[in-house]
Amino acid sequence: MERVDDQDRVRGVVVSRRQAVREGWLHRVAVTVCRDERRRILVHRRSEHLSRFPGLHEVMVGGAVHAGESYEQAAARELTEELGIRALPRLLFTFLNRSGLSPHWLGVHEAVVPDAVVPDPDEVAWHGWLTEPELRSALLEWRFTPDSHEAFSRYLAFRTAESSRRQRIDERLSSRGEHPWPTLPAP
């Protein structure tokens, strides 16, 4: 992986993830909030034999960004490796995350994925689909990775802000007699 600075700029130094964590060097991690067609969110429990956060639950699927990869490429690769699916996650935002094992830039994505995922048993011990209210309760009751709490809170704030922005655009266009979304003919 590549070391990055406090502005998320690549420093050109390639290091191992173990070394970056041990030394506290900034690096990049890409994660994806996976939703199904019914807007449920995929939650999983990490395998017990993993070195980082064994047995804890996560709201996101992801991992380290390899040298030369973009956040989006890393997120897509991780979905294939961990869930056995191919999807094009959409990068929503990045932030400097200090709640994990070491500080890192976290690229948070979203993807709509099939609900029939086939998780890698070496990575995922259990998975399930939760509605947003069910997930809010689970976050209070189950043990989650530190990243899950902060990243999911930021994800919800981002979605709320994006929804408000779209509503303002819709209202502005509607007041001018324009329709923000195409009108489909009746079946």
Keyword list:
187 residues; alpha+beta; 3-stranded antiparallel beta sheet; globular
Topology:
Elements: E1 2-4, E2 10-14, H1 17-23, E3 28-35, E4 41-46, E5 57-58, E6 60-64, H2 71-83, E7 90-97, E8 104-112, E9 124-130, H3 132-141, H4 146-175
Parallel strand pairs: 3-8
Antiparallel strand pairs: 1-2, 3-6, 4-5, 4-9, 7-8
Structure description:
The protein has 187 residues and is of the alpha+beta class. It has 4 helices and 9 strands, in the order ββαββββαβββαα. A 4-stranded mixed sheet has the order 6-3-8-7. The protein has a 3-stranded antiparallel sheet with strand order 5-4-9. A hairpin with a 5-residue loop joins β1 and β2. The radius of gyration is 18 Å and the shape is globular. 25% of the residues are buried.
Helix/strand class: alpha+beta
Helix content: 25-40%
Radius of gyration over all CA atoms, rounded:
18 Å
Mean pLDDT: 88
**Proportion of residues in extended strands:** 25-35%
Brief rundown of the structure:
It is built from four helices and nine strands. The protein has helices at 17-23, 71-83, 132-141, 146-175; strands at 2-4, 10-14, 28-35, 41-46, 57-58, 60-64, 90-97, 104-112, 124-130.
